[in-house]
Amino acid sequence: MSHTDSRDPSQLRSARWFQPDDLRSFGHRSRLKGMGVDDADYRDKPIIGILNTWSDLNTCHSHFPQRVEEVKRGVLQAGGYPVEIPVVSLGEMLMKPTTMLYRNLLAMETEEVLRCHPLDGAVLMGGCDKTVPALLMGAFSADIPSIFLPAGPMLKARWKDKTLGSGSDAWKYWDLRRAGELPDCDWRTIENCIARSAGTCMTMGTASTMACIAEAMGMTLPMASSIPSVVSEHSRLAVQTGRRAVEMAWEKLAPSRIITQASMINAIITQLTIGGSTNAIVHIIAMAGRAGCKVTLDDFDHWSSRVPVLADLRPAGRFLMEDFYNAGGLGALLNRLVDLIDTSCMTVSGTALGQQIASAEVIDNEVIRPRDNPLSESGGTYVLRGNLAPQGCVIKPVAAEPRLLKHRGIAQVFENYAELKAKINTPELPVTADSVIVLKSAGPLGAPGFPEWGMLPIPEKLLKAGVRDMVRISDARMSGTSYGTCVLHVSPESHVGGTLSLVQTGDEILLDVEARKIELLVSEPELERRRADWTPPEKIASRGYLAMFANHVTQAHEGCDFDFLVGRSPGSEPAIF
Ligand code: FES
Hints:
Layout: H1 15-18, H2 23-34, H3 39-42, E1 47-52, H4 64-77, E2 81-86, H5 103-116, E3 121-126, H6 131-142, E4 146-150, E5 157-159, E6 162-164, H7 168-178, H8 184-193, H9 206-216, H10 232-251, H11 261-273, H12 279-290, H13 297-304, H14 321-326, H15 329-334, H16 353-357, E7 382-386, E8 389-395, E9 406-414, H17 417-423, E10 436-439, H18 460-464, E11 471-474, E12 486-487, E13 508-512, E14 517-520, H19 524-533, H20 544-552
Parallel strand pairs: 1-2, 1-3, 3-4, 9-10, 10-11, 11-12
Antiparallel strand pairs: 5-6, 7-8, 9-13, 13-14
Residues 60, 92-93, 128-129, 166, 200-201, 205, 207 line the site of FE2/S2 (inorganic) cluster.
């Protein structure tokens, strides 16, 4: 029991709704009774909200109906009262144009749902990419005791004698098919095999990256990020998470007691050592902003050359999340970096991170590599700057062909994705393997929503000639399961008149990853001339959520949160009259 754990029911947040002997509280209690809820069910107990991002259109969360019952079981066992609250689902596969457009919507909903209800604690059920940062951002701002339950990765998929990984192998076999090297019947069979179970993508894509980051920040129970979605351990994790939420409510263990500048740095180190998704950079900056911390691209730059990539997981490496779990999981990996991470950071367990990972052991040195035999000495993600991206852009060198990391080539520019789609495979397109493919209008405002278009397709005629990687530059993001020499998140984006908007086909571009440089080799007077000629695009929307997005979303290097949502709102408990 911690020093703040009084177990005094009158100190519970929900007591403000239910304890007073007044007309308003009478209304609260009587309406619960109308639902068949007895005093003994909830009075004097922590009320735990279970924020459930399930929907029939979220393919990664299809096991949540069972998991939510298991969380409730844990809450009841620990003497709490569970209430399920559905929130926006954000399923990556079926939601268009991109779930990133709605990350801040779920974050806002999470914050307000937590604040406006009689809740003493919360279990945040998410997993598919944006649901993780969104739930955490909302919880950090609301600052009510909260614990995250990741959906868990899918089981490994098999096709013939091959292991298939979500996303990464879809791109790989699609390119083979476009090159005429994969028969249609094989392509159809891969479709039947590649998504083997409920759960999130089982490569180290954005979902697994964000789950690992949530665990490293202390927001989950140990091992939670890698337990596969459909094994019995995952059910037991759900029950334990429910039990722990009740204890956290008594202990008043809110995010502000867990998330510090040091835990955000632990998140950065984790993203780098797992060779994680570049998307995490945007999400970490946004989460830090909600927690009152400050993380910039310079922090990634600082750590990127100091942190070895130890997780040998696709798309950068060989294995999948199920292998990572069997190899010891994130705790075992972090145990190999105790000289870099801050082990004194608090976790939802009520103990320091160091204590939480102390007994985690590496079982398989092939999957979690030793410090003296890393997958890469560095290069999880690098930040590049130059006249083409004055506010920065990112690249994942570990997932690129090394020969392209220093490259000078002629730009082939597409003004938007529709143009790219229409022209990229035309035989007359004047591209060679040394060309640099450039896409504009794919950033936070340009697309809009900052979609995952950044792994721009290789032109079909080059694919047929055996080309499998090229330098590609855009203001888009790319899926965490993608790979290649893709320069992403160029900031400022082209839609707001960044230098990217001035690039023309035929310009020369220099990429020098080692020197962290990206330059448009066009003279400054010529750029000035083009800048003067540039016409800003029309406003993307005048009504609805999209208008709010257009007016308030920040640029990639600032985390793409809404400018008015940064930070917490201390003392903003609702009045109960
Ligand atoms: Fe949901 Fe990949 S589609 S995690």
